[in-house]
Automatic annotation (TrEMBL):
InterPro entries for the chain: H3K9_Histone-Lys_N-MTase, SET_dom, SET_dom_sf
Record key words, sorted: Chromosome, Metal-binding, Methyltransferase, S-adenosyl-L-methionine, Transferase, Zinc
Subcellular localization(s) per the UniProt record: Chromosome
Stated name of the protein: SET domain-containing protein
Natural source organism: Postia placenta MAD-698-R-SB12
The organism's place on the tree of life at top rank: Eukaryota
Subcellular location, principal: nucleus
Amino acid sequence: MYVSGYKAPIYFLIVSSTREDAHRRTGDRKAYVFDLDVHETGSDDEDDGRRYSVDSYRAGNWSRFINHSCEPNLQIFPVIWDTIPELNQPYLAFVATGAILARSELTIDYEPGAALEFKRSKGKGKARVPDG
């Protein structure tokens, strides 16, 4: 079930990285940045000029307040319906992973790939802490 879309201004990745770094340096942990890198792979090192991020720090909808959980009840999917796919600017849709009870907190996994790394490293008893 579709819950919400992530609404925020789009920035070139270099600009959003600078913004996120500035938030960290000043101790302001209110960064709400999502990279729109859905067409990239782990081996993509070249900058093809089509790397963007969305940052809802100053403008965005309620979905920027969705918190992290290692057992999230929402998943994020890139959706393209009125943009050119090659521009790499999909909408981000929050979709429920199952039934969500009333008054439950809505959560996502900030770093879903980190769970695989954690399992591979055979960590014992330590919780994952997301970057950012």
